[in-house]
User: Fold GlxA family transcriptional regulator from Actinocorallia longicatena.
Amino acid sequence: MRIVFLLIPGLELLDLAGPAQVFGTAAAFGHDYTLDYVGEREDVPSAQGVTLRAVTRWPDLTPRDLIVVPGWNTVQGAGRHPLLAATARRLAAHHAAGGTVASVCAGADALGASGLLDGRRFTTHHELQDLLAARYPRATIVRDVLYVTDDRVITSAGIASGIDLALHLVAADHGPAEAAKVARDLVVYARRNGDAAQAGAMLRHRSHLSDAVHRVQDRIDADFAAPLPLAGLAAAAGISERTLTRRFTAATGLTPLRYQQLLRLERAEHLISQGETSEAAARSVGFQDARMLRRLRGR
Assistant:
């Protein structure tokens, strides 16, 4: 998967660096991401004063590839996008060919200029929401969320929310365990949009200092769809089953089994939201059939 970052003069460094770090870390973990940096000119000044170097020739893209438009400084010029018409057409053409286009913060303005927001839901930095809602009246602004996905057009809120967007895409490509591994390496929380819990179970229960419990969580995160007997988890942590249960519950508020069930439930919910049947989703996450899944969803 090729990730192309479109560098626009005055870009905010964290809008670019956050998603680039997520995909770069995922690539270091063995996932097939190639990062490219394209601009309308080679030298691209950032809002923070660092000048970045881009290539001006676009790589050949396939429908599997992603274009990301980081935001730029909007203090001057009322946030108006500075794109050339040819660049806006290229964004629209990639989407029309089946590709995905994403934005961070003010980058939503570039997507709007390309016609990609028309008839779709989108979000942006809270200070720009009224402005862009008025500028693109055929689009629907969604407030108070970190990111919005609508027909392969993905928009995120301000600055650091680009990290959340990128983690969401890694999870969609490779599963939540891999996204959680990347998030832990970056020392950030994995979040979701406003239609789901703001923090996934994998990281919602990580705010403790027990190394033994973290090791067990790592084991469960990596293989939550498989049977994981308590004896094997305790042996991996080098402690007794009783001690593991006590420490795990004290650190997370859950037993190891309940934690595993939460991970299975979250993944099954994601699969169902993507069109899987309850039965298929249940089997994908390790249940023999959908009965246990229905019981857990009912709770």
In short: Residues 193-198 have pLDDT under 50 and may be disordered. DSSP finds 13 helices and ten strands in the chain. The domain at 2-174 is CATH 3.40.50.880 (Rossmann fold).
